[in-house]
Amino acid sequence: MFEKFFNPEAVAVVGASNNPVKIGYAIMRNLISSGYAGKIYPVNRNPGDILGIHSYQSLTDINRSVDLAVITVPAASVFDEVKECVSLKVPYVIIIPGGFSETGESGREVEKSIKNLIKGSHTRLIGPNTVGVYFPHTKLNTALTPPERVSFPVAGDIAFISQSGALGLLTMDSISEYGIGISAFVNIGNKIDVDENEFLEYFNQDARTKAIAIYLESMDNGRRFYELLRAINRVKPTVVLKSGRTEASAKAASLHTGALASNDRIVDGMLRQAGAARAYDEVELLDYSRVLAYSKPFAGERIAVVTTAGGVGVITSDYVSSRSHGIGLHMATLSEDTKAEIRKQIVSFGSAENPVDLTADGDIPSYEKVLGVLQKDRGVDAIIAYALPQTPKMNMEVVEVISRLSAADKPILVGVIGSKLGKELLVEFERARIPAFPSIERVVKSLKVLHERGIYLKSRGLL
Amino acid sequence: MFEKFFNPEAVAVVGASNNPVKIGYAIMRNLISSGYAGKIYPVNRNPGDILGIHSYQSLTDINRSVDLAVITVPAASVFDEVKECVSLKVPYVIIIPGGFSETGESGREVEKSIKNLIKGSHTRLIGPNTVGVYFPHTKLNTALTPPERVSFPVAGDIAFISQSGALGLLTMDSISEYGIGISAFVNIGNKIDVDENEFLEYFNQDARTKAIAIYLESMDNGRRFYELLRAINRVKPTVVLKSGRTEASAKAASLHTGALASNDRIVDGMLRQAGAARAYDEVELLDYSRVLAYSKPFAGERIAVVTTAGGVGVITSDYVSSRSHGIGLHMATLSEDTKAEIRKQIVSFGSAENPVDLTADGDIPSYEKVLGVLQKDRGVDAIIAYALPQTPKMNMEVVEVISRLSAADKPILVGVIGSKLGKELLVEFERARIPAFPSIERVVKSLKVLHERGIYLKSRGLL
Question: Do A288 and A310 lie in a common domain?
C-alpha cells in the first residue's frame, strides 16, 4: 500500500507551466531541483517543452502509465482531469488547488462528485487543497512554493502528516535551519479520499520512521484515529497538534480546510488515553517528535542538570521543579559519592550540587566525567546538559561525549543557546540524533513529554 | 552619576595578559576588537606590551587618572588591587573574578573587607563575579569570553541588567542573530556595592533606553527595588526575570551568586503591584522587553489576526482565545463593512472572517489594504500580522507597510516563521522597531504582556 506513492517511477504534472506565476511552474521546479530521479511528464494543453522537458497535451498522450499524477489546474477543471486519471488507472492523484469544501456548499458538492468518480476504481486521491508531498529519500517534492522560498529538511526519522499545507511548509523551512530531518511529509488537505488514518498505518510500518508528527484541524473518523493511535503508541510514539481548540478557532479551521468542530476536552482525553503526546504549536510538534524519536522514555521524576553558566542552571531548576510555570518534577538529590566525584572535576567556585555548575572553566574531559558520574547515580532519572558555546573550553567534541554517554541508561537532553556556534552545535547534535533545543523552556518542556511517555509505557507494562 | 562609567575616557585592565588562557587576555581582545575609542592601559607586573599596547607594572605607574579599572586577577589578589584603586581615586572598578560569597563563609568575609575599603572613598565597585559591561554606544566591552565565541548586539532601545554574567552573554549572543539591539548591558554579579537599584535609576533617566530588562537571582534591597519599579513603570516599562522560584532552584541561586532565597509568591505580587512584566526565561525577557519598547500598550481584548497560511491563523486563534493553553483574550468579531472590504482583496477561498486568511495569493497591496481596514474597525483592539516568507508574493516591502500602519492607533505584532528569508525579515522588522517573533507562541505571549501593560496603565489613569 502506498508503495508507488512514496516511490513513483513516473510522475505527471497536469497543468505544468513555463509561466512563473502558475503553481504548475513552481511544482515543476521543485520536482526538478529536489533531484527526483524518476520520469517527469509535464502535461499542458499547448504543445512544447516545459522547463526543458517535453510536454504532453493530455495524460492520455503520454502513452505510458504513470504512478502519480499531480493536478495543478484550477478547481473548476479538476473533475475532468481526475476522470481521465481514473480511466487511465493512475494509482495516485494529488489534487493541489484549493476552492472546494473550505469555501462552502458548492465546493462540497464538487468534492462529492470527484469522490464518486473513484468509487470502485484503482485510483486514490490526496487532497484537494494540498501542497502534496515531500519525501527526502526519493527526493519527490510537489510543493507549490518556489524553491528559493522554502528550505527542505534532510532525510531523518520523523514522519510529518499535516492537514494544512502552508503550516507544513513553514515548519519544514524552520527546522531545516537546524539540520532536523524527516522521513516524509504528506499534506492531506481536505482529504476527500486518503486521510490521516491511512498514512498513520503506513508510517507505523515504515522502518525509517521513528516518530510520527500530525497536524490536524479535524478528524473525520475519530474512532479509527483513536484506535490506530492507541495501537501505534505502544511501539512508535506519535505527537498530535490538533487545532481549533476553542469555538473561535474551530470556526477558523472550518473556513480553512472545511473541518468540523470537535469538543477539545474529548480530543484531549482521547489523545491521553491513546498515549499520544499533544503539541500546541509548530515548535512543540517537532520538538516533541524529536525527543521521542531519539531518546529513551523515563518514568522517574528526579532530574539532574549540568551547566557551565550558573544562571541557566537556576532557571532550568525553576522550570523543572515549579508547578505554576514549569513541569512539576524534582531536582535530583545527588549522592555524597557523586558530589565528591564531581568536586574533583570543577573549580572551587563551581557547584557540585544539582544543578551542577562547571563554570566557564568547564572543559570537555571534566564535562564527560561529570556526565558519567550522573549516569551512575541511582538518584537520577534523566539529565539535562547544556552545551553553551560562549564557554571558552566548549567545543564540538561535546557532541561525541554526550552521544557516547547517551548510550547508558538515562536520557540526556541538551540545551544550546547562542547564535553562530550555537547553530553549528545544534546541527551536529541533530546529526548524532541527540535531542537538542535552543532555549531553556524548550528543553524542559521536551523532557516532560519524554517523561509522560515513560509513565504511559510503564502503566501499560511496556517499560 | 555613572557618566564616566558608561563613557570612560581611559580604562585600565589590571591583570591584562598575552596568555590566551587568561581572562585578562580575552578582556583586552574584546576591548580592542569592539572598537572602544578611549585610552586602554594594560596593567601587568611584568614589563612589556600586551596585545601591542604598552603595559604598566601597576595602576600607579600609569601616572594619569583612569575612569574605570577592570580587575581580572584571581580573587586572592583583588583586595590589594582595589586598595590601590581607592588610593588613586579611580571612580569605577569592575571586579571580574568569581570566588567570593558564592563559595561560602570565607568568600563573604573577603567581600566585606573589600567593601570596607571603599567606605567614604570616591570609588564605586561593580561585581565581583561579573563579566562587566557592554555598551554599544561607546563600544566598551569587558566580556571575559573570546570575541569569536559571542556575537554582541547592535545599539538599540533595551537596557539589560543581569546578575548572572554567562546568562547575559548567551542572551546577547542569541539576540544578535536577529538584529535585536540594546542600549547597555551591565552584569552586577555579587553586587557588593553598586546594585540593580542604582542602575535602574540610571536607565530610567537614559534617553536611549525605552525598556529595561532585568535578570535577578536575589534582591538585597527589595523595598527600594519595588519603589523604583513602581515609579519607573509609570513611564518606562520594565521586565523582570527573577529566578530561584522554588526551593530547589533558590538553593542553586545561592550557590551561583550568593543570592538569598525569597518567597516567590511575594515576588510575584510585588512585580504585579509595581506594574513590571514578569519573564520566566531568557527568551521571554527580551521578547517582552522588545514589545514594550516598540509598541503602544492596549487595554481591549479583541484581537484580529492576518495570515497567508490558514493553519497559522487557526493555531493563533487557539492561543489567543484559550485559557488553558493560551492567553484568554478574544478573537475580534469583524464588522460587516470590514469583511466586505477585505473580501475585495482576497481570493474566493480566502477568509474575510477573523483570522483573515489572504492565502498564498496574498500580495503586498492587498495585505496593506486589509491591515488598513482592520486599523479602522472599532471592534479590533490589537493586530497580529504574519509575514510568512514561504508565501510567493511576500517580500521585504511588508516591513514598510506594517511600519506605516503601526503608526495608527492599534499595535501590530508580527510573526515570521522560516529560515533564511525569515531571518532577513526579522532583522528588517527589528530595524524598523516592529516587534516580530519567530514562532506563533512567542508572538501571542508577547501580545499578552502588551495587553497587561495596557490594563496596568489604564488602572493608573495613564492610558
Answer: no
Chain B contact present for A349, CB below 8 A: yes
Question: Which residues in chain B have Cβ-Cβ distances shorter than 8 Å to A357?
Answer: 252, 255-256
Residue B134 falls inside a structural domain: no
Q: How far is A390 from chain B (nearest CA, A)?
A: 5
Tell whether B420 is within 8 A of chain A (Cβ). Answer: yes
Task: Assess B26–A contact: CB distance below 8 Å, yes or no.
Answer: yes
Same domain as A74, residue A26: yes
What does the angle CA B188 – CA B194 – CA B195 come to, to the nearest 5 degrees? 60
Q: Pick the closest to residue A27 from A105, A107, A95 (CA basis).
A: A95
pLDDT tens by residue, B269-284: 999 999 999 999 999 9
Mean pLDDT check: name the lowest of A283-287, B224-228, B361-365: B361-365
Which of A129, A158, A184 marks a domain boundary? A129
Q: Does B362 touch chain A (CB under 8 A)?
A: no
Name the B residues in 29-88 with CB < 8 Å from any A CB.
none
Separation between Cα atoms, residue A422 and residue B172, nearest integer Å: 13
| A96 within 8 A of A165, measured Cβ to Cβ | no
Is the per-residue pLDDT at A348 higher than 80? no
Instruction: Give me the mean pLDDT over the A286-311 stretch.
Output: 97
Yes or no, beta carbons of A249 and B439 under 8 Å apart: no
- Interface predicted TM-score (ipTM) of this complex, two decimals: 0.96
Please choose, from the candidates B354, B404, B350, the residue with its C-alpha nearest in 3D space to the C-alpha of residue B383: B354
Q: Residues 92 to 111 of A: which have CB under 8 A from any B CB?
A: 98-100, 102-103, 107
What is residue B395's DSSP assignment?
-
Give per-residue pLDDT as tens, A362-408: 999 999 999 999 999 999 999 999 999 998 899 999 999 999 999 88
* Domain final position from A265, A294, A323: A294
C-beta neighbour count of A349 within 10 angstroms:
21
C-alpha cell at B187: 552584569
* Nearest chain A residue to B104, by CA: A349
Whether A141 is in a domain gets the answer no
Q: Which residues of chain B neighbour A146 with C-beta distances below 8 Å?
A: 392
Task: Please count the residue pairs, one from chain A and one from chain B, whose beta carbons lie less than 8 angstroms apart.
Answer: 288
- The shortest CB-CB distance from B325 to any of A280, A322, A439 is to A280
Is the predicted pLDDT of residue B259 greater than 70, yes or no?
A: no
Mean pLDDT for all residues in chain A: 95
C-alpha cell at B217: 537571582
Cβ–Cβ gap B390/A149 under 8 Å: yes
Cβ neighbors of B221 (< 8 A, separation 6 or more) are B195, B197
C-beta atoms of B247 and A353 within 8 A: no
Neighbours of B139 (CB within 10 A): 16
Count of domains forming chain B: 3
Nearest to A125 by CA among A159, A160, A90, A98: A90
Give the three cell numbers for residue B18: 598575552
Which range marks the domain in which residue A19 is found?
1-129
H or E element at residue B11: strand B10-14
A19 touches chain B (CB under 8 A): no
Tens of pLDDT, residue by residue over B380-409, are: 999 999 999 998 899 999 999 999 999 888
Cβ of B325 and A144 within 8 Å? no
Structure confidence by residue, pLDDT tens digits, B30-64: 999 999 999 999 999 999 999 999 999 999 999 99
Q: Which of A173, A241, A320, A390 to mutate to test the interface with B (most CBs of B within 10 A)?
A: A390
Q: What is the largest CA-CA distance in chain A?
A: 80
> Which chain A residues in 274-293 lie under 8 Å from chain B, judged by CB atoms?
280-284
- Residue B213: pLDDT band with limits 50, 70, 90: very high
Residue A290 in any domain: the answer is yes
